[in-house]
Amino acid sequence: MNKLACRYAILRFLPYTETGEFANVGVVLACPATGFFGFKLETRRYARFTHFFRELDRQVYIRAINAFKNELERVRKVHEHARDDALRDVFTALIHPREAILRFGESRAKLVNDPAQALEQLYEHYVEHDFVHHEAHEKEMEHKVQQIIKGLVLDNPFREERVGDDEYAVRFPFVQVVGDHPRKIIKPFFLAQEETTAIFNHGDLWIGKLKRLKQRRMLPKNVLFTVQSPEKSDRKRFGAFDDVRKELENYAQIAMLGNKADITQFAERT
């Protein structure tokens, strides 16, 4: 499948020009080849922005972002049939530098399979900071696993290590090394993100890492991912988790984070 060339820009909230401080609050993306023009703005969970700019009345942000949303909807409606050079011109005019509390950063290019999905991924990365949320959750999960395995009597204790070689290596928080070779890996893995796309994205990231290590014959046979999943009652999110879990099982054993017996058995097994 041929990838599509898209242009995107990050919308910034910059209430005090004299300080230069800003927060990313949205993304706009255009795909000239298909005529796709989309945007996503933070219009609900804005407290973190107003808390950051402590002296600012929150209504300033609310009024500004709602007005900008209306403007983007107008642009999309007026130019709904624009493609190729016409859509490029619309995008260029839209993100032109301006003196306002909401302004775009520089135009960026990206090759994508699906423009709508790319928009969601960019928003999660630049606005939601999904990578920060993953790291924070997984640090907490690592602490819980550490509490389980630290009391075990093991000839070779687990420690943080990079698995791989000079060309490709992946950091894991718990690796049992025998001699000079990694024998077991335990990786706490958070898959309870709020959006299904974020669940798939985080899953794909680590499945790709495991796949590459395995292809290079550097992945040990004994790998355990201790996962945190959405509630089963949340059918969409749990369904996304289940899809990721099935792919992950090609490279690792799976245990729920709260299953102390499975983690202990894996760690102690010779």
Order of helix and strand elements from N to C terminus? EEEHHHEEHHEEEHEHEH
- Architecture of the largest domain, according to CATH? 3-Layer(aba) Sandwich
Number of extended strands: 10
State which percent range the strand residues make up. 25-35%
Q: How would you describe the shape?
A: elongated
Please report the number of helical segments.
8
Overall average residue pLDDT: 88
Largest sheet: 5 strands, antiparallel
- CATH C-level label of the largest domain: Alpha Beta
Number of domain modules: 2
Helix content: 40-55%
| CATH topology (level 3) name of the largest domain | Trna Endonuclease, Chain: A, domain 1
Q: Termini separation (Å)?
A: 46 Å
Instruction: Report Rg.
Output: 23 Å
Uncertain stretches of 5 or more adjacent residues: none
Structural class: alpha+beta
Topology diagram in text:
Elements: E1 4-13, E2 23-31, E3 36-41, H1 47-52, H2 58-78, H3 84-94, E4 102-104, E5 108-112, H4 115-126, H5 130-149, E6 158-164, E7 169-178, E8 181-190, H6 196-215, E9 222-228, H7 235-248, E10 253-256, H8 260-268
Please tell me about this protein's structure:
The protein is an alpha+beta fold and 270 residues long. Helix content is 42%, strand content 26%. It folds into two domains: 123 residues, no CATH class; 139 residues, Trna Endonuclease, Chain: A, domain 1 (3-Layer(aba) Sandwich). It contains eight helices and ten strands.
